[in-house]
Amino acid sequence: MECYKRMKGRTDEGVWPYLMQLCSTELITRLLVNLSTRLLFHT
């Protein structure tokens, strides 16, 4: 996943939690989009 690749090499303690939050938000959004598109295509 791109956001995890972006995080590599950045272990700044100030930046890390922010990046982790960004990645989890991105993942959750992606999951929701995948689920909704699946539901739309299955009906």
Task: Provide an overview of this structure.
- This protein is mainly alpha-helical.
- It has one domain.
- It contains 2 helices and no strands.
- The protein has helices spanning 2-7, 16-42.
Provide a quick synopsis of the model:
By secondary structure, this protein is an all-alpha fold.
Radius of gyration over C-alpha positions, nearest whole angstrom: 14 Å
Count of strand segments: 0
Main sheet characteristics: none
- Total domain units: 1
* Overall average residue pLDDT: 76
Poorly predicted runs: none
Distance between the termini: 29 Å
Order of helices and strands: HH
With helices defined by DSSP (H or I, 4 residues minimum), what is the helix count? 2
Helix content: over 70%
Spatial shape: rod-shaped
Strand % is: under 5%
Given the helix and strand composition, which structural class is it? mainly alpha
SSE topology:
Elements: H1 2-7, H2 16-42
Structure keywords:
single chain; 43 residues; mainly alpha; 77% helix; rod-shaped
